[in-house]
Amino acid sequence: MGNILQSPISTKFGIAILAIVLAGNSSVPTRAQAIRPASVSVEGSTAYIDGTITSEVAAEFTTLAARPGVKSVSLNSPGGRVFPALEIARAIKAAGLNTIVPPGDECHSACAFIFLAGSERIAQGKLGVHQISGVDDPSLTQTAIGQIYEDLVTFNAPSYLVSRMLRTPPEDMYIFTPEELERNSINIRDRSKGQAVPHLLPIETWLRQSWLVGVFLNTHTSQPFIALESDNMEPLLRIAHYPHRSQTFVEIMVPEGSISGTSARLELRFAHGNDEPFSLFVDADIETNAYAFDFPTDPVAIQKFWAAFAAGTELAVLNSFGVEIGRYSLAGSRRALDDFFKVALR
């Protein structure tokens, strides 16, 4: 495969700059925390967590979870503290309990950890995720990332949920639709089918408007790589660089089985305001769930691609019949590219 980078690349990663997790700040209370006192109770075989997650809630719940006859946990919480949420989630996992978000209730931010730990998990109410905010201590950041992603693997959290979390700023909340919950194995109704271990785990990430930049671990190959990914996930456009192989390529991820054949000629049409669009054409391999192509070895072609990507306002990808495959905002692309190359050239 062609290599677009012009100088040696180090595999040293350094300290994570932005902790991307499912919960809010681990030390500063949010407005919701201040106005919703938490309660923990048990009725029959169901334990209930209603309110903001704190250390006190975690301690109380751990005692209740050990009671004989408790089978499930009903959740209604705006979020709370990171580590108490993980403590509750581990207790749920260890006890083999199911988790529920009833209709009309919500499970946001740190509460999502608890939901994901269920052997069977069903959200009929609102399930929401976003990034962490306010963690300035690098040692806390690294600790949080390590614990969170170790637990995500244990809980069989689907990659789709992790991706949505990474792309949602801390001041926002991504609420999954009922279709997303079912289609992407976020809801699990049969515990024997809950084997959706994330394929890509983030090590460090930056969100630059419409683009996510980061260092990821491919859990299937145990190899780290650097990626530049679109905010639009239907379909996702990813520029990936594997430092150990000096390999850079583009993937456009589509639903498995939705395309056929072995190759396709794609048009990359870059728009810039009212200017005439600029197009590049590439020959892509067709895989089971993606169009994939290497960067050209011609340095002029490489320069044209990066210049168009950094300066454009929108990118449309069309197949050989002129049918649009995907459309992507290029807001933040210049800054995202700067991050991409800085990490790649470490």
Description:
- The chain has 346 residues and is of the alpha+beta class.
- It has two domains: 31-134 and 156-198, 2-enoyl-CoA Hydratase, Chain A, domain 1; 203-344, Immunoglobulin-like, CATH 2.60.40.
- Helix content is 27%, strand content 31%.
- It is built from nine helices and 18 strands.
- It has helices spanning 31-35, 55-65, 82-95, 111-116, 138-154, 159-166, 178-183, 299-311, 333-344, and strands at residues 39-43, 46-50, 72-76, 98-101, 106-108, 121-123, 126-129, 174-175, 200-208, 211-218, 223-233, 236-242, 247-253, 263-271, 278-286, 290-294, 314-318, 324-329.
- The strands form three sheets. It has a ten-stranded antiparallel sheet with strand order 9-10-11-12-13-16-15-14-17-18, sandwiched between helices. The protein has a five-stranded mixed sheet with strand order 1-2-3-4-6. A three-stranded mixed sheet has the order 5-7-8.
- Strand 12 and strand 13 (247-253) form a beta hairpin.
